[in-house]
Design goal:
Helix 3 (197-212) crosses helix 5. With 418 residues, this protein is α+β, with helices and mostly antiparallel strands. The chain has helices spanning 29-40, 139-142, 197-212, 324-329, 334-354, 394-417; strands at 6-7, 21-24, 59-69, 75-96, 102-105, 113-115, 118-137, 148-156, 159-161, 168-169, 173-181, 185-191, 194-195, 229-233, 236-242, 246-255, 259-262, 266-269, 272-279, 287-294, 298-308, 369-377. Strands 3, 4, 5, 6, 7, 10, 16, 18, 19, 21 and 22 form an eleven-stranded mixed beta sheet that branches. A five-stranded antiparallel beta sheet has the order 9-8-11-20-17, with no helix packed on it. A four-stranded antiparallel beta sheet has the order 1-2-14-13. Strand 6 and strand 7 (118-137) form a beta hairpin. 20% of the residues lie in helices and 39% in strands. The chain has six helices and 22 strands.
C-alpha cells in the first residue's frame, strides 16, 4: 500500500470554527504500480505490454482462477477461465499484462493472442460481444502472486512426508492441511481525531451489506462506490498492516478409505467435512489448519473456493444498532466517530489491496466483474505416449552437418592412405 497522502484544505472559516482537514482514502494506484514494477523485472519485458486497453464501453470481467497443488501443497498448475462481456459499438483491444503461456477459446470467437506473455483480445463489437478463454499461466510466477498458500503433510509411524501426487494417501495415518492468507503487507493509512458521523455512515452501511452477502464480486473501493476524500479533524497518518480477508468454502473428502476430518468451522459429512469461514482481516486468523485421520490407503479430495470478502463482525455498528445510519442519528461520542473513521479507511484500503487479485491479470477495464479462486490437488502427471512436437534448432543442425562432413572427409583421407 503506498503512503496515503493527507491533504490539508485551505478554507475560509467563521470565527470560532475548527479547521477541517481533507484526507484522501487509499486507492488502487499502489497495487497497479507494484504490478507494473514486477512486470518490468520479468525476462524479455517489452514496453508494449503496458499499453492501455481501448474499448467502446463498459466491460464485465468474470474470472475463475483454478489452482492445482501437489502432495505438499506447492503450486503445480494455474488456469484462468475468463469471460468478458463488452458493451458498445466499435473496435476493441483488451490488453492484460499476464503473463500467460497459452490461450484456448471457450466460445465461437477466437482465443486472445498471447504475445510474450501478454494477453490481447482484439476485434469489433456490434453493440455487445461475449468473449471467453482458458488461459494457462506459469505456476512458478503465480505461486508468489496468489492470495492463499496451501501446505500438506502426511504422518505415519513417526515420519512426516508429502502426500503422493493427486492427493493419494499411501496408508493409515494423519494428514495436516493448512491454508494461509498471504495478502498482508505494511501500509501507511490516514486517520483523524474526529469526523462527522453522517459522512461515514452511508459507506459503512454499504460495506456491511456486502459483508453479509459475500460473493465473488469485486470489493467496493474509491474507484467504485467509496468516497475518495473525507473532511476530518486532526488529520494524521499511522503505520499499519493491511490484508484482504477471504471467505473460504468447500469440502475435504476421503475417497476409497475411511476416517474423519476436524478443524475450525467444519461440518461433518459421511466421507469428510465441509467448511466455511473468513480467513484474515482485522479479527480473523491468518491461517486455518485441518486434521484428517485416515484408516487406510485412498485419496484426499480438496475442493476449496475463496473469494475476497469483508468481515461482517468487524463492520457491526456499535451498541447493537441495526445500521450505521441509525448510529449516526444516535449522537455518537467522539471515540466512536474516530473508530468509525478508521474502520472506513480499512474498508477502502482492503478494496485497494484486493485490486492486486481482482481482476487477476491486471486489466485496466472500466466496469464490473468477479474473481474467485478454486484450489484442488493437481492430477498425477501421465507419461506422454505420443511423439513430442519438436521445433528444429537450425544452428545445432548446421553444426552437426559440418561435423559429419569433417568426419567423412577424414575417413576419405585415411582410406586413400591404406
Amino acid at each position: 500500500m503506498r503512503a496515503t497522502r493527507v491533504l490539508v484544505a485551505s478554507l475560509l472559516l467563521l470565527p470560532g470554527t475548527a479547521a477541517a482537514d481533507q484526507v484522501e482514502l487509499p486507492t488502487s494506484d499502489a497495487a497497479q504500480l507494484a504490478a507494473t514494477a514486477i512486470l518490468r523485472q520479468l525476462p524479455n519485458f517489452r514496453p508494449d505490454r503496458l499499453l492501455p486497453s481501448d474499448v467502446p464501453g463498459p466491460v464485465t470481467n468474470d474470472e475463475v482462477v483454478r489452482v492445482g497443488v501437489g502432495g505438499d501443497g506447492t503450486v503445480r498448475r494455474v488456469v484462468l477461465e475468463q469471460r468478458l462481456r463488452l458493451q458498445g459499438t466499435g473496435d476493441y483491444a483488451v490488453r492484460e499484462r499476464g503473463p500467460a503461456r497459452e490461450a484456448t477459446s471457450l466460445s465461437d470467437d477466437p482465443a486472445p493472442v498471447t504475445r510474450r506473455g501478454a494477453v490481447v483480445w482484439q476485434g469489433f463489437s456490434p453493440g455487445f460481444r461475449d468473449l471467453a478463454a482458458r488461459l494457462l499461466l506459469d505456476p512458478q510466477i503465480e505461486a508468489v502472486h496468489l492470495p492463499l498458500g496451501v501446505t500438506v503433510s502426511f504422518s505415519s509411524g513417526g515420519t512426516r512426508r508429502p502426500l503422493e501426487p493427486g492427493g493419494r494417501v499411501p496408508g493409515p495415518g494423519t494428514i495436516t492441511l493448512s491454508v494461509k492468507n498471504l495478502t498482508e503487507q505494511p501500509a501507511v493509512l490516514p486517520t483523524g481525531s474526529d469526523v462527522s458521523a453522517s459522512a461515514v455512515a452511508g459507506s459503512l452501511d454499504q460495506a456491511l451489506r456486502a459483508a453479509r452477502r459475500p460473493s465473488a464480486a469485486r470489493l467496493a473501493s474509491t474507484d467504485a462506490g467509496l468516497p475518495k476524500t473525507l473532511e476530518v479533524q486532526g488529520a494524521a497518518q499511522v503505520q499499519a498492516t493491511q490484508a484482504v480477508p477471504f471467505r473460504l468454502t468447500g469440502t475435504i473428502r476421503l475417497l476409497g478409505t475411511t476416517g474423519a476430518v476436524s478443524g475450525p468451522a467444519t461440518e461433518p459429512l459421511t466421507d469428510g467435512a465441509g467448511f466455511a469461514g473468513v480467513l484474515g482481516g482485522v479479527d480473523g486468523a491468518p491461517e486455518v489448519t485441518f486434521s484428517v485421520r485416515v484408516d487406510g490407503p485412498g485419496t484426499l479430495a480438496l475442493d476449496l473456493t475463496a473469494v475476497a470478502a469483508l468481515d461482517a463482525r468487524a463492520l457491526a455498528p456499535p451498541r447493537g444498532l441495526s445500521s450505521w445510519r441509525a448510529w449516526a442519528r444516535s449522537s455518537p461520542p467522539q471515540g466512536e466517530r474516530k473508530a468509525a473513521l478508521d474502520l472506513l479507511v480499512q474498508v477502502a484500503a482492503t478494496g485497494a489491496r484486493a485490486s492486486s487479485y481482482s481482476p487477476y491479470l491486471g486489466a485496466d477495464l472500466l466496469g464490473s466483474g468477479s474473481t474467485s479462486f478454486s484450489y484442488a490437488f493437481a492430477p498425477a502427471e501421465r507419461a506422454a505416449t505420443g511423439r513430442p512436437h519438436l521445433e528444429p534448432r537450425w544452428g545445432a543442425i548446421s553444426l552437426a552437418a559440418l561435423a559429419l562432413l569433417l568426419v567423412l572427409t577424414n575417413a576419405g583421407l585415411i582410406w586413400r592412405r591404406l
